[in-house]
Amino acid sequence: MSGKKKRKGSKTIVNIVLGVICFIWLLPTLGLFISSFRPAADILQTGWWKAFPHQEWKAGETLQLSKDVDLREPIEVNGKTYTDDQLKAGVKADGSRLMWENRRARTINQQEQGWKVTPDLTLDNYNNVLSGKEYKLKQADGSETVQKGTGLSQAFWNTLTIAVPATVIPVLIASFAAYAFAWLRFPGRRTLFVIIIAMLVIPIQVALIPVLKDYTALGLNGSYLGIWLAHTAFGLPLVTYFMYNFISQLPKDLFESAFMDGASHFTIFSRLILPLSVPALASIGIFQFLWVWNDYLVSLIFIGNQPSVQVMSMKIADLVGSRGNDWHLLTSAAFISMLMPLAIFFLLQKYFVRGLMGGSVKG
Amino acid sequence: MGGQSQLQPQMKPRSKAKQTVSLRAVLLSLIVLIANVVVNGSIFLFFRDSTLNPLLTAVLAVLWGVLGVYLIYYTLTWAVEQYPDYVRRKVLPYIFIGPAVIILGWLLVLPALRTLYLSFFNASSEKFVGLSNYAAIFSDHLMATALRNNLLWVFVGTLACVAFGLLIAILADRSSYEKLAKSIIFMPMAISFVAAGVIWKFVYYYQPGDEQIGLLNAIVTYFGGEPQAWTSMLQPWNNFFLIIILIWMQTGFAMVIFSAAIKGVPDDILEAARVDGANEVKIFFGIMIPYISATILTVTTTIIVFTLKIFDVVMVMTGGQYDTEVVATQFYRQFFMYRNFGYGSTLAIVLLIAVLPVILINLRQFRKQGGF
Fold this sequence. Notes:
Chain A: Keywords: Cell membrane, Membrane, Transmembrane, Transmembrane helix, Transport. By secondary structure, chain A is of the alpha+beta class. Helix content of chain A is about 60%, strand content about 15%.
């Protein structure tokens, strides 16, 4: 009886501790998400948590002191004395806050505490980041400046243009190879497969310099084709290995009956293996897609600074470098780049986790 | 892994006499081969020089990627089927693995060897300098920092990921909202390091004055501390603030794998230990850890390999300034900014040497599982 009670009590503790950890884990992303909807000036003035209902000081009555109060002496307000510095920063007095309203005219504002419930939210940041047009930005002091948008929508489509073929091509090629490795016998099979396993964790840095030299010679630098091929090559070892593990586990009887009917290997592969492998294809496809979508290094090297081909990760990294304090742009840009991964994560979680588990070793 | 014996190609009744290769088959297969090269070559050139709308290019590319690749396999296997059985059986496997082997060889295997070769040459790859690039890497000040930081990343990052992953896996296992908690911890793995960099740059953001909009500085000032420029001024501790980003992202990976392993620990063993009066801490160290030690090893090596190659986080957060350089960012700097191919290649090879043990472990594991 007491044991059971103890177990129950410890479960509450576990729930609370885990809750705190989850909260900490969510907090950074939450901050980004909320900030991306706040007006540019607000982001720089107050923390994002101020978007939640909170108490703040609101202007209240104005107190007029006599004009000849010496600011170097203690100043008397409502029977208490304060220094000039205190009144500059604001000082609490019986539930209200005293602060200079106009120091020269010697007026003091008696601020009241009040709740601010509705946050100022806007979609402007997203519009600005997505379009490449110029837009007006209201500064904190009320003046307006004109800035050029970053044109992230172009980069979004570029990323998609790169990611889809760079997923489909390697998955298809690797599946054919995996079938051959699993079910056909040929000289060199062992050696070739050992090479593929060795390539699983190889740092792609070892390939970058020579490949870039070849690309420059072939004119592939900064082209979609070049980056598709690069991602295909860097993804192939893992996808082949993953598909091999799946295809080699399929029951042998399946093939035998097909063979009896006189089907060729090609027919068996496209009519039997591919449909059966859909879960595996989905898992590894998602992994490869996200890997390409989130990639920074490969794009950085093979795309360079051609703006028409640049992907989102490069644009955002550029923004961090050049507009590091423009948080209204950075937050919304980062969130746009996270949309696709998060959508996949929440909609296809089962495949996603499986693909990531299998693919975590990738270089 | 597939331990099954292979399909016997002899399942079809063996043809009585050895058929001879017909001239027609040779001609046909030659035509198919040449047609494939020409057609795909011209598509290749078309895409290389295309100035079409990128979206249209993408659609066409997907079509080519799927249909084109499929057709290559289709036509080539068709050509092989024109040959008698014994030729077909020998050639067919190479058609299936051909494209994969060619792409891998061209863009991964040969480049790795060429990089090794380049690492023995000077900056412009003209003069053979022997091992002096390697000697320079281990004596240069910047490189020494990069190596030190990489070690920090590997040790601190991996240790923290594994420890947190294990802790959260166990907590989640006993909590009443396991799935939700696991989703939350795992989510950062979906996003890119660049986006994560922005998220954390915002957390660490520092501005002079009283009002801090960065979460960390706001907390510090709330408790009466001095706000800090976490990622730049606090050397060498700024490295740890970068490593936290890795921990935030990779703990989810460790947790999911550990979580599966923990569920594999038999209940009766745990129950027996509890009956014997062992407390939860004792059960954890005495039963669970030994039981899942193989999994811990796998997760550890995976994260080590990952942290060795860490690049994006450092690049986005500090660009390698303020003594946060790691080997991969140094590689990029040497290669792209200083155009020093010798140093760049050597750094890549250093990374390769660092993961070499993992490659060997993988291969041994593979052989043990009877893969071949």
